[in-house]
Design goal:
Blueprint (H helix, E strand, L loop, with lengths): L10 H12 L5 H8 L3 H14 L20 H12 L4 H8 L3 H11 L4 H4 L17 E9 L6 H4 L3 H8 L6 E9 L5 E6 L4 H11 L20
Antiparallel strand pairs: 1-2, 2-3
């Protein structure tokens, strides 16, 4: 139950107040003064406690038992059908003879307010290789070196920009990464550049290809995410 932030009484305090009145510890007026409510409120919760006990101390729904002016079921169904034909709220209101606000309420209640609700996106069609070494994903990440404290610490951007313009940068490092699709085994190495020779050397010299004898390993982060 979601208690209003300005509510004077919680269900437990309501029961405590009702018991105090029923047991003769205080009158309605005294209870109203102690709990910071009116005598009418005290009488209401006391009567509800007598009728329903502890269960009656919870808030009741404020929804009316009947809604005579609620949109008819056949009109609501027609609105939903037209919406699935991708008509806008204004066009639906014109065809059904109800207001645009009514159309909006009906569509919200039916969960058809947004276009993506009409045609939900297709689930991702994943794949998974059966044997290690059958497919290897390769990528290269370029990382900048630094030889001094940067502007995020010093707050001085001018000196850094002037040095960069004169070619005083510290250079770059290139992280070559390979991940086996079936086993999720990963290997990475820092190389001086991202050229062809470095990429080939990364695969050949380090022999990153998994052996078939490694079997099927499972990575919780990868399983079912492809």
């Amino acid at each position: 139950m979601n208690i209003h932030k300005n509510a004077r009484l919680t269900p437990r305090r309501r029961e405590e107040m009702a018991r105090a009145v029923l047991e003769g510890a205080c009158s309605n007026a005294d209870a109203a003064r102690i709990y910071g409510v009116t005598s009418k409120v005290v009488a209401r919760w006391t009567a509800r406690f007598l009728a329903d006990g502890t269960a009656g101390m919870a808030d009741r729904s404020s929804r009316p038992r009947r809604s005579p002016r609620r949109t008819a079921t056949d009109i609501a169904g027609e609105i939903a059908v037209l919406r699935r034909q991708r008509l806008t709220g204004k066009h639906i209101a014109k065809q059904t003879g109800v207001s645009a606000a009514t159309v909006s309420r009906v569509l919200k209640r039916a969960g058809l307010s947004r276009l993506r609700d009409i045609e939900p996106a297709e689930p991702v069609r994943g794949y998974e290789r059966e044997r290690p070494g059958e497919m290897i994903h390769i990528d290269i990440k370029k990382l900048g070196r630094f030889s001094q404290v940067g502007h995020r610490i010093t707050g001085d951007r001018t000196r850094q920009s002037s040095r960069r313009g004169k070619g005083w940068g510290a250079g770059w490092e290139y992280v070559h990464v390979a991940i086996d699709d079936a086993s999720c085994i990963a290997f990475s190495q820092i190389s001086p550049d991202e050229k062809k020779d470095s990429a080939v050397a990364f695969l050949k010299l380090r022999d990153v290809r998994p052996r078939a004898s490694l079997g099927r390993l499972r990575c919780p982060a990868c399983t079912g995410s492809r």
